[in-house]
Amino acid sequence: MVFGFGDKGITIRDAHFPGRPGIDSYGNGGFRFADMSHRGSLLLLPSGVYGWEQTEDDPLTEASLSRAFAETGIEFLILGTGRQMRLVDPDLRAALKAKGIATDPMGTGAAIRTYNIMLAEQRPVAAALIAV
User: Fold this and answer.
1) Which of 59, 65, 90, 123 is the most buried (most CB within 10 A)?
2) Computed from CA positions of residues 54, 40, 87, 102, in that sequence, does the dihedral angle turn out positive or negative?
3) In the prediction, which pLDDT does 10 show?
4) Would you list the DSSP string of the chain?
5) Cβ pair 26, 17 in contact under 8 A
């Protein structure tokens, strides 16, 4: 979340970067991209990069990926599940498939490398990356 000053004091806004940058580095609980750093997990979608309130301990659900479900133009969603790969719940996989989105879970490091390659190839990819 980002803090800003509004008419009534401090307002809290969702972190958002309106572009499609690759991830330059990761670790220490965050990521570097587009000459910036972000602490916490990220959703990288066609509409931009968003802060994501997800940890390795939280289950991956339709609700936790609701922003990705609301997007158009995604054919492949890479799930960076943290330090280790964890399987995707079959109901979540079925919901993504019903929306026309293939998914592949992997550790966050592998997910970043895969996302950067697919992004460079201009493929219709998105990523959900849990910070490590």
Assistant:
1) 65
2) positive
3) 54
4) -EEEEETTEEEEE--EE-S-PPP-EEETTEEEETTEEEESEEEEETTEEEEE---TTSPP-TTTTHHHHH-SS-SEEEEE-SSS--PPPHHHHHHHHHTT-EEEEE-HHHHHHHHHHHHHTT-SEEEEE---
5) no
Superfamily of domain 16-129: MTH938-like (3.40.1230.10)
Strands 41-45 and 125-129: antiparallel
Rounded Cα distance, 69 and 43, in Å? 11
**Which sequence spans correspond to the domains of the chain?**
16-129
> Which tokens in the block code for residue 64?
């936790």
Higher pLDDT, 68 or 15: 68
Provide the token pair at 102.
Answer: 């293939």
Q: What is the β-pairing status of strands 76-80 and 125-129?
A: parallel
**Burial call 17-52: b when 16+ CB within 10 Å, e when fewer:** beebbebeebeeeebebeeeebebbbbbbebebbbb
